[in-house]
Amino acid sequence: MRVAERLGWSAISLGGFVAVWWAAAVVHGDFRLLPTPPQVLQALVVAAKSGALFSNLAITLARVAASFLVAMTLGSALGVLLGMSKTAERLIGPWVVLFLNLPALVIIILCYVWFGLIESAAVAAVAINKIPNVAVTLREGAASLSRDLAEMAAVYRFGRWKTLRHVVLPQLAPYFAAAARSGLALVWKIVLVVELLGRPNGVGFELQTAFQLFDVATILAYALAFGVIVQAIELGIVQPWEHAANRWRR
Amino acid sequence: MTGLSIEIAEKTFPADGDGPPRRLYRDFRLDVADGGFVALLGPSGLGKTTLLNMIAGVDRDFAGRVAFSRGPDPRIGYVFQSPRLLPWRTVLQNVVLPLPKSRDSERRAKVVLEEMGLGDAEDVYPERLSLGMQRRVALARAFALEPDLLLMDEPFVSLDEANADRLRDLLAELIAARPTTVLFVTHDSREAVRLADRVVVLAGPPAVVARDVSVDLTLESRRIPGEIERVRAVVLKSGPTVVPLNL
């Protein structure tokens, strides 16, 4: 499909969504419970004018970035280790399954209880939630590394660095991309919960305040702003990188 | 160039699943002269690839030793049974990567690619090429290294005969231009006689040298089917005489 055509369909689809929302709000009649799109837009403008919108978004994004980076780094290392070493898989594999099934809320609460209501506890809580997912994905990648190419690299004396850069990492790239994509979606949702439970700022904190004031318009305004940003990261960073990494495919 | 001598006291593949362990080699010995082109001929499953892997140093799980006549650490070019190119690197990068890092290496790779008729494909990713072209790139990678020893593992299988023949001609030309010691594994006796100056026929398992035939054909006579057939009869032992080779 051509780009213009695809954008056209997206516009129609989103326009339809807004129309249904607007109609539902008008039919329901109580704008405090379900505000119309212009009311949400106005709440957005108010939050933006006070500066609260941008500072909260920045703080939350910083938390997302920090925990995402920690989770990707530690999770990848753990996953590659599990994929390459049978002993490691036998010893630590069951832990990963355990953590994979531990509810996010339990990890968040325990982190706050044990380490206090501090920034590093918040970031750690999010990262620990994400690490098992990354590890499981990268384990698949590491286990399916080509032995043929490893032999080739050994015969032609690529050495450690060349082998890593030209033989191993390109094979892991699709797994990194998959982990990053699902990771971003998971991390930014959990960050809001972490902020709601124990941080004095950020989008999650603002949502809690709005919840207590029953200010649905502000809740929707923040959700909208944050959704747009995450979508922009997906379209502007993740997808172009994936495209570049897959250039060689037929 | 380097000669080599291989002595394998024992090489066994561990049992996989229910099957018993397979003993591939026992008290096996083979010497290859410096600058020789030796074809190893034998049925598949005998362990010919394993032998190459032991020589190349990627399979170290055996009792025995591999000695090279000129220093312990020769440059080895290995053309595998499948091309084993890096699909995410261009043809040129695939040929450059094994070369020692120097300003000259890219130029060297380009020269070899040009010689092999791959000049136009430099910036192409391997998976966009036909299998014949991919095999050509694998050959270029091995030759660009100017190897002391060239190991080739049925490098022309699963090509149509015309294509394989063109590549055999190309290989002969390349070796004439850049002499090197070659160990060439194949199960095609015609190919073995056409290319090699010595054909070692393996039988087993465990692998033993069944016949060792020197091929005294000039480059021109190798193009004559009758000549090839004559030596081939010796190799396959259907002819009247066996020509043993003393080293």
Summarize, please.
The complex is a heterodimer of chains A (250) and B (247). Chain A is mainly alpha-helical and 250 residues long. Chain A is 85% helix and 0% strand.
Describe what this molecule looks like in 3D:
Chain B: This is ABC transporter ATP-binding protein. Chain B: Belongs to the ABC transporter superfamily. Chain B: Residues 6-229 form the ABC transporter domain. Chain B: GO terms for molecular function: ATP binding; ATP hydrolysis activity. Chain A is mainly alpha-helical. Chain A has a single domain (30-245), classed as MetI-like (MetI-like fold, Orthogonal Bundle). Helices cover 85% and strands 0% of the residues of chain A. Chain A has ten helices and no strands. Chain A has helices at 3-28, 37-49, 52-84, 86-100, 104-115, 119-143, 147-155, 159-198, 203-212, 216-245. The radius of gyration of chain A is 22 Å and the shape is globular. The mean pLDDT of chain A is 89. In chain B, helix 3 (105-115) crosses helix 4 (131-144). In chain B, strands 5-6-7-3-8-9 form a six-stranded mixed β-sheet, sandwiched between helices. In chain B, strands 2-1-4 form a three-stranded antiparallel β-sheet, with no helix packed on it. With 247 residues, chain B is α/β, with parallel strands linked by helices. Chain B has a domain at 4-75 and 147-235: 3-Layer(aba) Sandwich (Rossmann fold), CATH 3.40.50. Helix content of chain B is 30%, strand content 24%. Chain B has seven helices and nine strands. Classes of the chains: A mainly alpha (250), B alpha/beta (247). Chain A binds chain B through residues 148-149, 151-152, 154-158, 162, 166-167, 170, 173, 245, 247-250, and chain B through 53, 56-58, 76, 78, 80, 82, 84, 86-89, 93, 97-98, 125, 127-128, 141, 145.
